[in-house]
């Protein structure tokens, strides 16, 4: 299969459009999720800060992980200010947003869990954003390695490649839908749904990035994003497993009674 080949300028515009569309859709879905669960409006004191903390943290993490993925590009272009804002990383956005939210909640003294309401917005926003990545083709850099599989895509250079952007869309929609279907099981453990989603996506990217071109080898064939995923999982999984274990044990105990 061969996609429409866009110029660099057209690819940039298309990608930017879907990026902002993803953000707009995500924000609206998050607002509706809060309203549906009876939580306070984002504009009420303190709660707007959570959203701002999420956006600022995501923006910072977005760029940081991108430059970890391409350290050689930074070494050759750091003196060009216009290059600093280039490039993005979903993993960086997720982790940066998580840190931003937690710091903001601590600052405002908010103790309620806010993560579960992010799951649906994140899965839909990621899918929308990846459409832009796919249409941008070779200009985006999120395509996979060459493949002989029948669903390989030629992005314009005559080489059939893994359409990893589409793989990402299928994963977040299927995995996210599965978690949302099972969310009632973890109703007594606020925040667990988000933890499971984030952990699953970190594992997914650790695996799927192994069939993408390697921009910079940090050792053992690992890219910067894969290293970040590994470190994040090492830090995050103990919290996930702890909450999941006690959630399952409490649920079993209530059934036994």
Characterise this structure.
The chain has 257 residues and is mainly alpha-helical. It has a domain at 8-39 and 112-256. Helices cover 65% and strands 2% of the residues. Strands 1-2 form a two-stranded antiparallel sheet. Helix 1 (8-36) runs antiparallel to helix 6 (119-136), helix 7 (164-181) runs antiparallel to helix 8 (192-208) and helix 8 runs antiparallel to helix 9. The longest helix is centred in the last third of the chain and has 33 residues, at 224-256. Mean pLDDT is 87; it is low at 252-257.
Question: Helices and strands in order, then pairings?
Answer:
Elements: H1 8-36, H2 47-69, H3 71-77, H4 81-84, H5 90-108, H6 119-136, E1 153-154, E2 160-161, H7 164-181, H8 192-208, H9 224-256
Antiparallel strand pairs: 1-2
Helix pairs in contact: 1-6, 2-5, 6-7, 7-8, 8-9
Can you tell me the residue ranges where pLDDT is under 50 for at least 5 consecutive residues? 252-257
> Numbering strands along the chain, what is their spatial order in the largest sheet?
1-2
Q: Helical proportion?
A: 55-70%
Quickly count the helices.
Answer: 9
Rounded to the nearest angstrom, the distance between the terminal CA atoms is: 57 Å
The count of strands amounts to 2
The major pleated sheet works out as:
2 strands, antiparallel
């Amino acid at each position: 299969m061969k996609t429409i080949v866009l110029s660099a300028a057209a690819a940039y515009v298309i990608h930017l459009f879907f990026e902002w569309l993803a953000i707009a859709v995500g924000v609206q879905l998050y607002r509706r999720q809060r309203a549906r669960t009876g939580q306070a409006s984002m504009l009420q004191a303190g709660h707007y800060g959570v959203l701002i903390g999420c956006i600022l943290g995501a923006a910072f993490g977005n760029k940081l992980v991108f430059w970890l993925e391409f350290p050689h590009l930074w070494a050759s272009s750091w003196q060009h200010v216009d290059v600093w804002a280039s490039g993005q990383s979903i993993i960086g956005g997720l982790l940066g947003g998580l840190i931003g939210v937690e710091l903001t909640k601590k600052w405002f003294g908010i103790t309620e869990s806010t993560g579960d309401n992010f799951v649906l917005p994140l899965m839909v926003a990621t899918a929308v954003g990846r459409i832009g990545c796919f249409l941008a083709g070779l200009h985006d850099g999120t395509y996979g390695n060459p493949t002989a599989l029948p669903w390989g895509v030629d992005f314009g250079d005559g080489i059939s490649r893994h359409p990893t952007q589409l793989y990402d869309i299928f994963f977040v929609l299927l995995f996210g839908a599965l978690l949302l279907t099972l969310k009632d099981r973890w109703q007594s453990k606020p925040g667990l749904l988000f933890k499971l989603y984030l952990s699953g996506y970190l594992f997914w990217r650790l695996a799927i990035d192994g069939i993408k071109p390697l921009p910079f080898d940090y050792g053992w064939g690992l890219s910067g994003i894969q290293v970040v995923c590994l470190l994040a999982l090492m830090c995050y999984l103990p919290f996930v497993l702890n909450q999941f274990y006690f959630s399952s044990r409490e649920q079993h105990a209530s059934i036994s009674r």
